[in-house]
TrEMBL record:
<feature type="binding site">
    <location>
        <position position="189"/>
    </location>
    <ligand>
        <name>Zn(2+)</name>
    </ligand>
</feature>
<protein>
    <recommendedName>
        <fullName>7-cyano-7-deazaguanine synthase</fullName>
        <ecNumber>6.3.4.20</ecNumber>
    </recommendedName>
</protein>
<feature type="binding site">
    <location>
        <position position="199"/>
    </location>
    <ligand>
        <name>Zn(2+)</name>
    </ligand>
</feature>
<dbReference type="InterPro" id="IPR014729">
    <property type="entry name" value="Rossmann-like_a/b/a_fold"/>
</dbReference>
<feature type="binding site">
    <location>
        <begin position="10"/>
        <end position="20"/>
    </location>
    <ligand>
        <name>ATP</name>
    </ligand>
</feature>
<dbReference type="GO" id="GO:0008616">
    <property type="term" value="P:tRNA queuosine(34) biosynthetic process"/>
</dbReference>
<dbReference type="GO" id="GO:0005524">
    <property type="term" value="F:ATP binding"/>
</dbReference>
<comment type="pathway">
    <text>Purine metabolism; 7-cyano-7-deazaguanine biosynthesis.</text>
</comment>
<keyword id="KW-0067">ATP-binding</keyword>
<keyword id="KW-0547">Nucleotide-binding</keyword>
<keyword id="KW-0479">Metal-binding</keyword>
<keyword id="KW-0862">Zinc</keyword>
<feature type="binding site">
    <location>
        <position position="202"/>
    </location>
    <ligand>
        <name>Zn(2+)</name>
    </ligand>
</feature>
<comment type="similarity">
    <text>Belongs to the QueC family.</text>
</comment>
<feature type="binding site">
    <location>
        <position position="205"/>
    </location>
    <ligand>
        <name>Zn(2+)</name>
    </ligand>
</feature>
<dbReference type="GO" id="GO:0016879">
    <property type="term" value="F:ligase activity, forming carbon-nitrogen bonds"/>
</dbReference>
<comment type="function">
    <text>Catalyzes the ATP-dependent conversion of 7-carboxy-7-deazaguanine (CDG) to 7-cyano-7-deazaguanine (preQ(0)).</text>
</comment>
Length: 224
């Protein structure tokens, strides 16, 4: 019987670390992919490396992109401030086309590896309202993946797995803790310093802190 492989998008944050643990618990050999895309919070890349080692992925790949060449987001354009209080509508931390681009490259690697499952840690409960985190987007990308690839046309097809989709942040933290995720290795902050210390004010920091509080678990986040 051939090895069951999965490609997993790994940002270095809380959610994607949990997804790796969940995939491993399902018996997948995990191949993680991160992106150096011009983000201001590059400490997450070091965190991704730490998480990949701790959770024993088979291979961790970092792909260089230039999404800051497009701009349009507080995460890729330092002239746009990261909001430190809740805002109305889709926040300026939304990165245009980010999950579409990331999943497309993960799809390419999955086809090369012979993997048929691609995991992404998007969430539609405790999240910032990004359009490319919704179930409709995940379903649409899966349809596209099976139209656009040799493996999709000739083989078994691909599944885009989003196991955190309907979980609260507290439920995510509890699930990962049961599976041995060391959240002290992760970085979620949108404006973390070079050592990975969090601001404690941005949307991602607020969601993370509220998740640990609601879960009744110690928050290992290191703050500035």
């Amino acid at each position: 019987m051939s090895e069951k492989k999965a490609v997993i998008l790994l940002s270095g944050g809380l959610d994607s670390a949990t997804v790796i643990a969940l995939a491993k618990a399902e018996g997948y050999a995990c191949y993680s992919m991160s992106f150096d895309y011009g983000q201001r919070h590059r400490a997450e890349l070091q965190a991704a490396n730490r998480v990949a080692r701790q959770l024993g992925v088979v291979e961790h790949k970092v792909i260089g992109l230039n999404l800051n060449g497009i701009g349009g987001s507080a995460l890729t354009d330092t002239r746009i401030a990261v909001p430190e209080s809740p805002t109305e509508g889709i926040p300026v931390t939304y990165v245009p086309a980010r999950n579409t681009v990331f999943l497309s490259l993960a799809l390419g690697w999955a086809e090369v590896l012979g993997a048929r499952d691609i995991f992404i840690g998007v969430n539609a409960v405790d999240y910032s309202g990004y359009p490319d985190c919704r179930p409709e987007f995940v379903e649409a990308f899966e349809r596209m993946a099976n139209l656009a690839t040799k493996a999709g046309v000739e083989g078994d097809g691909f599944r885009i797995r989003a196991p955190l989709q309907n979980m609260s942040k507290a439920e995510i933290v509890q699930a990962g803790s049961r599976l041995g995720v060391d959240y002290g290795l992760t970085v979620s902050c949108y404006q973390a310093d070079d050592e990975g210390h969090a601001c404690g004010k941005c949307d991602s920091c607020r969601l993370r802190a509220a998740g640990f509080l609601a879960a009744g678990l110690n928050d290992p986040t290191r703050y500035q």
